[in-house]
Amino acid sequence: MSYTHLRQQERYAIGEYRRQRWSIRRIAEELDRSPSTISRELRRNGEKPGFYDGERAEQEAASRQSRRSSRPWKLTERMRREIERRLYSGESPDIIAGRSTRAGEAMISHEWIYQMIYRDRADGGRLWQCLASKRKRRKKRSRGADTRGQLVNRVMITERPAEVDTRVRRGDWEGDSIVGRGTQSRLVSMVERQSRYLRLVRPRDRSADATADAIITALHSEVITTLTVDNGKEFARHERIATTLTATVYFAEPYSSWQRGSNEHLNGMIRRYFPKGTDFSTLSDAEIEVVQNRLNNRPRKLLGYATPWEVYSGRAHPPPVAL
User: Fold this and answer.
1) What is the biggest distance separating any 2 CA atoms in the chain, rounded to whole angstroms?
2) C-beta of residue 151 within 8 angstroms of C-beta of residue 236
3) What is the Cα–Cα distance from 217 to 212, expressed in whole angstroms?
4) DSSP 8-state assignment for residue 192
């Protein structure tokens, strides 16, 4: 029997399931893996007994793989300058290494680039400032009943076609709102599941009508079959969105952000440009579009180092079926 390594999205899913205290056997059934595979993953890439973080586990696995397969080579000054340029432009070491391999350039591991950055810092350099800061742990939220009221005529994610989970087709989107300073200003982020292509818009205000208008304007010319959102009151006009876009709007279960994993991940990347406390009303449309375009043209490991735009536009093959 051949062994297939866990994918990045599977590790993210394991992290979410463990936080919900799922058993190893239940996780294995959900991911269609053997219990021994899940148990081995928890032992090898967990930070400590009882705690497992999917993002950290993916980094540990990739680092281990690079140590096994990396070969010594000589770094030229031209290559060093190119790596520095790409770091300052916002690319991570992992993206630089993966994109270089995809383009048939020199073989280099992301671990080597990290070591280069640390050596530069020890010498007084500033390359380390290009790295993303460590994410704070998410606060635990109450598991009590949802007290925010009910949205009328919601269609829950449990009724969504299973085909959406496979990401084999284009046109299934996830949506969420990002709250700015004082909860008064907001952005709405929408991510296409297959390609991770992003549409980032700012409603005129925080109302449900303004949110619906923004979504309809952003997606009316895109391929859309479904849209999955959270339970925020700003999505109360979901029936108008569905009718206008000729799509079905589904709602994730309360406090289950992992059911919109692509959207949540992109929101974290957006926060690198617009940290918490940003007053979105002070931003220009051009500034918001710049961030949208940067993320859409940023190579992604889970896309085989293609960019979301390349996959969405058909210029690169979509990724293999994943969670």
Assistant:
1) 63
2) yes
3) 9
4) E
260, 239 in Cβ contact below 8 A? no
Q: Which two tokens stand for residue 201?
A: 């818009």
- What are the tens digits of pLDDT across the range 119-141? 888 777 888 888 875 333 334 44
Backbone angles phi, psi at 65, to 5 degrees: -65, -40
Shared domain check, 88 and 189: no
Residue 172 above 90 pLDDT? Answer: yes
| pTM to 2 decimal places | 0.58
Give the bridge partners for 191, in sequence order: 174, 198
Do 199 and 306 belong to one domain? yes
Tens digit of pLDDT for each residue in 14-43? 888 888 888 898 888 888 888 888 888 888
Q: Are 59 and 48 in contact (CB under 8 A)?
A: no
Number of domains making up the chain: 3
When pLDDT is averaged across residues 283-291 and rounded to a whole number, the result is 94
Residues spanned by the domain of 22:
8-69
Same-domain status, 195 and 301: yes
The helix, strand and coil proportions of the chain, stated in percent and rounded to the nearest 5, come to: 50, 10, 40
Task: Output the pLDDT for position 228.
Answer: 96
| Residue 108 half-sphere exposure toward CB, CA atoms < 13 A | 23
**274 against 59, higher pLDDT:** 274
Place of tokens 């190119």: 82
Per-residue confidence (pLDDT) for residue 146, from 0 to 100: 46
